[in-house]
UniProtKB/TrEMBL annotation, chain A:
Protein name listed in UniProt: Protein-export membrane protein SecF
Pfam families in UniProt: Sec_GG, SecD_SecF_C
Originating organism: Roseicyclus persicicus
Localisation per UniProt entry: Cell membrane
Domain called Protein export membrane protein SecD/SecF C-terminal: residue spans: 116-301
GO CC annotations on file: plasma membrane
Biological process annotations from GO: intracellular protein transmembrane transport; protein targeting; protein transport by the Sec complex
SUPFAM superfamilies: Multidrug efflux transporter AcrB transmembrane domain
UniProtKB/TrEMBL annotation, chain B:
Sample GO molecular function, one term: protein-transporting ATPase activity
Keyword Transport: yes
Role played: Part of the Sec protein translocase complex. Interacts with the SecYEG preprotein conducting channel. SecDF uses the proton motive force (PMF) to complete protein translocation after the ATP-dependent function of SecA.
Residue span(s) of domain SecDF P1 head subdomain: 262-372
Chain's gene name: secD
Organism: Roseicyclus persicicus
Transmembrane residue ranges: 396-416, 423-441, 489-511, 517-541
Keywords: Cell inner membrane, Cell membrane, Membrane, Protein transport, Translocation, Transmembrane, Transmembrane helix, Transport
Membrane topology: Multi-pass membrane protein
Name by which UniProt lists this protein: Protein translocase subunit SecD
């Protein structure tokens, strides 16, 4: 007996609740933007500049003690968080300390790092520093710029590619779906205040890649069916296409999510934010290819006659059966 | 119907075999690495010790021995992004130009009158002349000093820009010359950083120029970024100057063309020196740590090239009994008195050295001075334990992900699922094979990229299998259904993967460090997964179908 996540034959009407699903997407996007604007993002040092120090000790982490130890250094905004992870051993107590970029310093200040390390060793003798990372404000500014360019360039490249391969209506639909995915991901990062850094941007781009992959498969089938059923209602052809590819959509999302779940649980805390972003993006991306991209295409309408001009038309001589 | 030409089959099998055999050494990472290190050491020294031979024997010579480089986040090490202060060089150039400008203006003294160098912003040379009516002649005279720029883009334009207003002549480097100078400065800096890091003997450092004026330095296995900075951060400009005097006053007045520099060892002592050095570190050919024969203190020996040796010999011969100062990065290491002419071109520097500092100084002197100062914009240190933990976690996650996908696929597609899983194993093998051959670096996000590829690689197979199922419904017979399944799913596979590939390319061009590592594995993963899905599973299915000739198939 085979495992069938989706029955062989489905004829779900994906437009039945179009107002509801599309409306929900719009509301979710507005909420995400609202959360983003009101709560902001928890930017990492890649974008803000500053220093993060990862500490590890056998002794349990007492954030208060750390804070008191660092207070006399007057470093401005210092955030100390304890890190928990199922992969840590019993005497592995990890904390992340983030220090804001020091005023007026274009470059990194090694003195600050040395002072912080000395202050912590004084209170927790067995503390070690598995990683110390510093980014100067000059670089972080450029990194933000590059990140924004990367996201825009990806969207642009996809817009053009889909336009060339399909029709402009498809590329608009695809890009709207992608923007939807990106905004929802930024929204959840803002809501949960997960650290937003360069890796998150890479994750965003991966989400774009994954979501477009999903969308393209449905579009590809839609194009095929539009040629096959020239007279059927666009809405019906779309429903047919989604139903036909539904099994594949669920299978692929399923395997990808399974792989990501393993990484999310077992991959360690260093890349957890990164993996979480992709995990979330796969869910949102799958949803958007079924419920957003298509609706946009339906909304703007599409060319129906996909048959190529008949090459033989007008050359009757070639019809001779020899 | 289901024909794959023989040469096609052979190609597919060959590619897979090559990929897997290049991936295999990575399974025995530690052994192969020791083997490779031993081979390199034997090649370099020419001598084979027992320990090296034993290490070498860990892995047969005839097997592929290329490994995937592990990124800093997996191996531990230090990462620095340095900005070279290229404008520093303009200033030095202007200082060097001043004697020439002076001589050129002296030739037209009857028109410009007396000349005087004025304080000027960095990178500019201002000369005031006493007869403003001779400005045109002065400017023309200075212009003769300009030479055509030697560079790929700026050929023909002059090196200097000379302008004049009132009684002031302003000389600056032209835009083309600045660019050419920046380029040279960067090349020199990269080269010298590389030499210094190589001298320290660490494994596979990455030293790359980034953009206009940056250098990215990644050294695996080094303890901390600070250690790395000590090695490459100092300019290490060694110069020998005539000593004019000694003082305790940090504000002491010095005449033009003289320097007031602090002593390195004696607190509060300053030396007044002639600004123009007798010889510089540029003329050094060798430098070694040593011990002073009289005192037994650590010292550093040096040897000049013939030109340097001649200058040094001439100067010492003419100035016996006078002190001269050995200056390193604007600090006086020592100021010994010349007892006799030093004609051999070699000598020794004594100072307050320890064995470590003398060794470090010798390394720096051998590698040469940096042409300009470097400012560090970004530094990251990752401890080796954290890297080891990450590898462990990544491996574990990859295995679990793999097993889960395997079970899921077999449950859903039966035998075809098994074929897809074989393709998946080969796919991961191919990814590692390609990563090893092109010498790519595997980072932690790179592992995530592979895990993601495991999930997504199945996609192409799923597309084909689902399509075969559909074609089977229209009862065309299994062979026809398989054929149609592959050909009809192709356009979706190509479109879907090309778009993802575009993203990987954008990530690669715009990303840096770990993000780049991710884009590399993602991009390679897309290519290999399409290859394995379209060719490998198809070969498996067709071979199976040819043998069994089943009347019906269930997908």
């Amino acid at each position: 007996m085979r495992l069938r996540l989706v029955p062989d034959q489905t004829s779900i009407d994906f437009f039945k609740y179009a107002r509801l699903t599309f409306g929900a997407s719009v509301v979710a996007m507005v909420l995400s933007l609202g959360v983003w604007l009101s709560m902001g993002l928890n930017f990492g040092i890649d974008f803000l500049g500053g220093t993060t120090i990862r500490t590890e000790s056998a002794e349990a982490v007492d954030v208060g003690v750390y804070r008191d130890a660092l207070a006399p250094l007057a470093l401005g905004d210092v955030s100390i968080t304890e890190v928990f992870d199922p992969t840590f051993g019993p005497d592995q107590n990890v904390a992340m300390i983030r220090i804001q970029a020091q005023d007026g310093a274009e470059a990194v200040t090694p003195e600050t790092i040395a002072a912080v390390e000395a202050a912590l060793v004084a209170v927790v003798p067995d503390i070690t520093f598995p990683s110390v990372e510093s980014v100067g404000p000059k670089v972080s500014g450029e990194l933000i710029q590059t990140a924004i360019i990367a996201v825009l360039a990806s969207l642009g490249a996809i817009l053009v590619y889909i336009w060339l391969r399909f029709e402009w209506q498809f590329s608009v639909g695809a890009v709207v779906a992608l923007v939807h995915d990106v905004i929802l991901t930024i929204g959840i990062f803002s809501l949960l205040q997960i650290r937003f850094d360069l890796a998150t941007i890479a994750a965003l781009l991966t989400i774009i890649g994954y979501s477009i992959n999903d969308t393209v498969v449905i579009f590809d089938r839609l194009r095929e069916n539009l040629i096959k059923y020239k007279t059927r209602e666009l809405r019906d052809v779309m429903n047919l296409s989604v139903n036909e590819t539904l099994s594949r959509t669920v299978m692929t999302s399923g395997t990808t999510l399974l792989a990501l779940l393993a990484l999310l649980v077992l991959g360690g805390d260093v890349i957890r934010g990164f993996v979480f972003a992709i995990f979330w993006g796969v869910i949102v991306g799958t949803y958007s290819s079924v419920y957003v991209a298509k609706n946009v295409v339906l909304f703007i309408g599409v060319k129906r006659d996909w048959s190529k001009p008949d090459a033989k038309a007008g050359t009757q001589f070639s019809n001779i059966d020899a | 119907m289901l024909q794959i030409p023989l040469w096609n089959r052979l190609m597919i099998v060959l590619v897979v075999l090559a990929g897997v055999s290049f991936a295999m050494p990575n399974l025995f990472y530690d052994r192969v690495e020791r083997h490779n290190d031993a081979v390199a050491a034997i090649e370099e020294t020419g001598a084979t010790t027992d320990a090296l031979a034993a290490d070498r024997a860990l892995w047969p010579d005839w097997l592929p021995s290329t490994l995937v480089n592990l990124g800093l986040d997996l191996r531990g090490g230090a990462h620095l992004l340095a900005e070279v202060q290229v404008a520093d060089v303009y200033e030095a150039r202007m200082d060097g130009l001043w004697p020439e400008v002076r001589d050129a203006l002296r030739d037209v003294r009857d028109q410009v009158g007396t000349i005087r160098r004025q304080d000027a912003p960095a990178g500019e040379l201002h000369v005031r002349i006493s007869q403003p009516e001779g400005l045109a002649a002065g400017v023309a005279a200075v212009r003769t000093l300009a030479q055509p720029v030697v560079s790929l883009t700026g050929v023909g334009s002059p090196t200097l820009e000379v302008s004049g207003t009132g009684d002031l002549i302003v000389v600056t480097l032209s835009e083309a010359e600045r660019q050419a100078t920046d380029d040279r400065t960067m090349q020199q800096s990269v080269e010298i950083v590389r030499r210094r890091v190589d001298e320290a003997g660490t494994r596979e450092p990455t030293i790359q120029r980034q953009g206009q004026d940056r250098i990215l330095i990644q050294v695996p296995g080094i303890g901390s970024a600070q250690e790395l900075k000590d090695l490459i951060g100092t300019t290490a400009r060694l110069t020998f100057h005539p000593v004019v005097g000694r003082t305790q006053d940090p504000e002491a007045d010095v005449e033009a063309r003289q320097l007031l520099l602090p002593s390195m060892d004696e607190d509060g002592v300053f030396y007044i020196l002639e600004q123009t050095p007798v010889v510089t570190g540029d003329d050094l050919v060798d430098s070694q740590p040593a011990f002073d024969q009289q005192t037994g203190q650590p010292s550093v020996t040096f040897r000049f090239n013939p030109a340097g040796a001649r200058d040094f010999g001439d100067y010492t011969a003419a100035n016996v009994g006078a002190p001269f100062a050995i200056v390193l990065d604007n600090e006086v290491i020592s100021a010994p008195v010349i007892r006799q002419a030093i004609t051999g071109g070699s000598g020794q520097i004594t100072g307050n050295f320890t064995v470590e500092t003398s060794t470090e100084l010798a390394v720096l002197l051998r590698a040469g001075a940096l042409p300009a100062e470097m400012v560090f914009l970004e530094e990251r240190t990752i401890g080796p334990e954290l890297g080891a933990d990450s590898i462990e976690a990544g491996e574990m996650a990859a295995l679990v992900a793999f097993a889960a996908v395997l079970v899921f696929m077999v449950l859903s597609y039966g035998l075809f699922g098994v074929f897809a899983c074989i393709a998946l194993v080969l796919n991961v093998g191919l990814i590692f094979g390609i990563l090893s051959v092109i010498g790519a670096t595997l980072t932690l996000p790179g592992i995530a990229g592979i895990v993601l590829t495991i999930g997504m690689a199945v996609d192409a197979n799923v597309l084909v299998f689902e399509r075969i199922r559909e074609e089977l419904k229209t009862a065309k017979g299994p062979a026809r259904a398989i054929e149609l399944g592959y050909s009809r799913a192709l356009s979706a596979i190509v479109d879907a993967n090309l778009t993802t590939f575009i993203i990987a390319v954008i990530l690669f061009t715009l990303g840096s460090g770990p993000v780049r590592g991710f884009s590399v594995t993602l991009g390679i993963g897309i290519i290999t997964s399409v290859f394995t899905a379209i060719y490998v599973t198809r070969l498996l299915i067709v071979t199976w179908f040819d043998r069994r000739r089943p009347k019906t198939i269930e997908v």
